[in-house]
Amino acid sequence: MKISYPITHRRARLEIIPLIDIMFFLLAAFVLVSVTLHKNHCISMSLQTASTSQIEQDEKSVYISISKIGQIYLDQNLVSMDTLREQLKVFHQRNPQIKIFIAGDRDTSHGNIISVLDCVRSAGIQKIGFNVNTSRP
Question: What is the CATH number of the domain that holds 98?
Answer without folding.
Answer: 3.30.420.270
